[in-house]
Amino acid sequence: MKTIQLGQSGLHVTPICLGTMTFGEQVGESDAHAILDRSLARGVNFIDTAEMYAVPARAPTFGATETIIGRWFAKNPGARQKLVLASKVAGPSRGMPWIREGKGMTAADIVASCEGSLRRLQTDVIDLYQIHWPERHVPAFGTKYYDPAKETAQTPIHEQLQALAGLVKAGKVRHVGLSNETPYGVHEFVRLAEAHGLPRVATVQNPYCLINRSYDNALDETCHRLNVSLLAYSPLGFGLLTGKYDASGIEGPSAPRGARIASYESVRRQRWGRPEALDAARRYNQLAREHGLTPTQLALAFCYGNWRVASTIIGVTSLAQLDEDLAAWDTALSPELLAAIDQIRWQVGDPAI
To answer: What is the pTM of this model?
Structure first.
């Protein structure tokens, strides 16, 4: 895999990124370290984490993922220099008071969160530091519509950028990015950065998969014109696009044991748990089988080969899953198969927005 430059930054990453949000919840520390070992050995130079991980977010596991990664760095002193390390500062509380006092995300909160991540990760610098979700109210995490009546923003984007600039100047962060953002947000962050000599966002990390292609509706143009790179998360639709729920559904005695969406009510309440999302996933999964592919191969190849995607974030719970996801890199989708995918989207839309 050739590396890809992220936006206008100096970061060059593999087009596959190891997501780590299962570390500390579904995946114990020894297994997490084995996955990190294998991923690095297979040539992946990009890992992504966040202060709020593991997922689903709970007070007892807050910071657990970064802590596990930090202990791996300590055990493997040469690994840190081989990797591009991304982490995230959590946005406003969203019902997680253990992250910080207050419901907002002030400039001081951004700095404190970064310093906490650095301690847990046992590193001096984070290569890509991202705002996990916007400080202002936006339609995200299953909310489809913008509602100005719900606006509670207190920290202007300019002030957030100034806080990030301080971290860059201090050598604690190399480059900055966004996550779960909108076209307005990306454009405003870039505009203010260029107008005031502040760090320019290199990336936006948003959901992108067969059952959620909301990125294709304007944000793709915004990022293309502004040279902001997409880091696609949930390429397998929280497991719906692996086919493992096709027969059983996501609940009940026959649902796969230990799977995130089947195990955690908080996950099922969001976009991935909608019946329409599973119905759409079943159609894509059947399309894969009709063309001699596994559902996983189809879903990942759709992201891997997409001009919109700079790097696809894969979250795994085992070495077998890691190997399967990496093997899908060699899967190419024909123009006819891509047209069939678009035909299904025309009929079912994006049910997991």
So the answer is: 0.96
